[in-house]
Every structure is written in C-alpha cells, then in structure tokens.
Specification:
This protein is an alpha/beta fold. The chain contains twelve helices and 15 strands. Strand 12 and strand 13 form a beta hairpin.
C-alpha cells in the first residue's frame, strides 16, 4: 500500500451500473482485510439501494472492515459554509433582491462539488483507512467535481484582500461609500482553510500512486462516446484512468430469439471500447440474471470483476496533455510499449482523432481547446506521440 489511503474513483454515464461497480469494488477490498470506506457524491443517493440499507451523511458500518457514506452536500454545505452563505445573501440583498431569492442565489455554482471534495480530503487523510472508493456522480458532474479545486482556488486567491490590514482600511470605506460590506477577517480565515483542503485533496487525486479513476460503460454507441470524452478530460486534468469496466455483456451460453442483432451491436461496440481506450485494460462483467442487490450479490460481482487486489494500479500509462509551443497547441499522448518503428497514421473524423503507430491504434476525443484547430503535423519520440494543431481558422469561435 502507498502512504495514505488508496483512492479509487468510479464514474460513468448514468444508468451503466457505476454505483454497483463502486459498491462491489469496495466490498472486494474489505474482504481482503483492507479498512475500506465507500462514499457517494452522487445526488441520486443509490449507494444505499445497492447495499439494501439506508445510508446517511454519517458513515454506516456494512461489514467489520467496510463503511459507507452517502454524502449529503446540503448538510455539509450548511455546516461548513453557513457564514459564507449569510454574507453572500446579505450582499445580494443589498442589490434589491428579496431575501428568499438572495438566499437561493448565494449557493454558488459548483459549491456542492467543492464541499464534496472538502469531505474527501478528510477521508483520504484518515489513518484508520486503507482504501477510499468514491461512487462519483455521472460523467459530466465528475469532471466539474475534479476540476473544482483548481478553478475555485484560482478565483479565491485573486479575490481575497491582501491581509487583514487592507481589510481594516477598505472595509469601512466600502460600506460607507458603496454600501457594500466586505467579508470580515474570520470569514477570510475560513476561506484559507478551504483553500488548504482543496490543495491537499487535489494533490492526492492527481497522484497516480494514490488515486486511479475507473470508467464504467455498457457496449452502446452513445455510452462509449461519452466515456471516451470523459477519459480525455480526466487525463487533461491530470487524473489517471487505470481501467475501463465493460458491463452487462451478453453471456455466450445465453440463447434466445432476437439476441443475434443485440450480439452484433455489442461485438461492434466492444471493439470500439478496446480500440478507443487502448492500452488501458478492459474488465468485463456479464449481464446478470438479476440486479445485484445486497452484500452477498455485490461480493460475487466483486469476485467476478477482480482476480487480484482491486487496489493495485491496473495500468501505468501516463496521461494525455496539451501544451502550447511556438503559437501551436500540441497534444502529447504516451503510448507505452510502442517503439515508434512503424509507420505513423493520423486521421480525423469530427471531434475524434485516429492515431496509429505500427500495429497500435488509438481514438482520442478532442477537448474543446483543439476541436476548431487544424492538425499541422505529428511526430513520435521516446514513447510519446505529439500532434501539432495550428491556430483557429478564420471565422472559428472558441
């Protein structure tokens, strides 16, 4: 085990079995004697349904080595941010808004994601835990969750006054001449605590030795497309994806009228999964006879999913990155095990980039920063493929 709790982030499109996989993963860890916590940041509150037990914002014991928590961001928000909400509501009330609307608007966009991360910071630093499994919200919300520390920290560091001395001078003047009450020193001090927690959890979540993300998909075209997009953005934000779980695969011995077309669709999409996420390993789960509910059913699922310790790093490849070089954007992608001796193939279809080096193939869904830029060149050096994108063409927006 690494220093501090191992963190496994489980995410995917809503309805693909993400929560079930997270619960089964946590149970598998606990069965190996690891002190495990599974915590859900998904507002759907389905983690308790998976265990067939009612969960609350506090940790509930599932087994002697497994606890579960359904994080209620509203409860934590009031506990952690009550003073800040009061301040913001008062500030907005001064603009003429009535109290009810001012209070509603005082919950800043993304604040619940920040609260969830703050709570995770405490769990991953808990010396009594070996593993923290996070049942994340669906893909888009997960991207916002994991991007929140950098975005919020950037804003807080630029908006905060430089020290209480400035605040003591500016505060009375702002209230007298502008009718605006600046935050007091105590509130700013709480903001510093939030920044420290965000920095701490960001360091943990971006450390591939401690944290891995696992994407859950089903072999359907729209699901696979969203998962590839999620993989791109997780990589851009420095998060390591070490496995993809392909769920609800038709078993070979299942024979019934009408399954032939479904098998063809699944075979095609499984091929897309293998190609689109290579060289990340694909873990396969068959279509269950019944929905896996409760500890026993989830334990069987965990055994099917993992041959060995689920906390191991299932893939060591580096993440994708985008940098700016001489006015061009360069997408860099590590291709472990590729020597670069083969011919380089490069193609593009819409928002997807198709890459090939010798026998290896990879499909990358482009992030927004590259979608409107033309490809102007590519090269392979020391195990890293670099694709150069030129400036946006005339008339492009974004």
């Amino acid at each position: 085990m690494t220093s501090g709790a191992r963190v496994l982030l489980v995410t995917g499109k809503g309805g693909v079995g993400k929560t079930t996989v997270a619960a089964a993963t946590a149970l598998r860890c606990a069965e190996l004697g690891l002190r495990t916590l599974v915590v859900s940041t998904d507002a759907a509150h389905s983690l308790g349904d998976a265990f067939a037990i009612e969960l609350a914002d506090d940790v509930t014991e599932i087994t002697p080595t497994l606890g579960a928590r359904q994080l209620d961001a509203r409860v934590v928000l009031e506990r952690m941010w009550g003073d800040a909400r009061e301040y913001l509501a008062g500030l907005l009330g001064g603009t003429g808004l009535d109290r009810v609307r001012a209070e509603e608007l005082s919950v800043l966009p993304g604040l619940e994601e920040v609260v969830a991360l703050g709570e995770l910071a405490d769990h991953v630093d808990d010396p009594d835990l070996d593993v923290v499994v996070v049942d994340c919200a669906p893909s888009a919300e997960t991207i916002r969750l994991l991007a929140a520390p950098e975005v919020l920290a950037w804003w807080l560091r630029r908006l905060r006054p430089q020290g209480t001395e400035l605040l003591s001078v500016a505060g009375p003047l702002a209230e007298q001449f502008l009718g605006v009450r600046l935050p007091d020193a105590e509130l700013l001090a709480k903001g510093e605590v939030v920044l420290e927690r965000l920095d701490r959890v960001r360091a943990v979540l971006q450390d591939p030795d401690r944290t891995s993300a696992r994407l859950v998909v089903v072999p359907e075209r729209l699901v696979v497309a969203e998962a590839r997009r999620t993989h791109t953005y997780l990589s851009l934000f420095g998060h390591h994806v070490d496995a993809v779980v392909a769920n609800r695969i038709l078993p070979d011995d299942l024979d019934a009228p009408g399954l032939a077309a479904w098998r063809r669709v699944q075979a095609r999409e499984l091929g897309e999964i293998e190609e689109g996420f290579a060289p990340v390993p694909i873990l396969r789960l068959g279509l269950a006879d019944d929905e896996p509910i409760g500890v026993e059913a989830l334990a069987r699922l965990g055994e099917e999913l993992y041959d060995d310790d689920p906390t191991g790093r299932l893939h060591d490849g580096q993440t994708l990155s985008v940098v700016e070089v001489d006015g061009n954007r360069v997408l860099r992608l590590a291709l472990p095990g590729v020597d670069g001796g083969g011919e380089l193939d490069l193609g593009r279809r819409g928002d997807d980039l198709y890459l090939g080096v010798g026998p290896y193939r990879r499909v990358v869904t482009l992030p927004d920063t590259l979608r409107t830029r033309p490809v102007v060149g590519a090269g392979f050096d020391d195990g890293v493929l670099s694709v150069r994108f030129g400036p946006r063409e005339e008339g492009d927006v974004g």
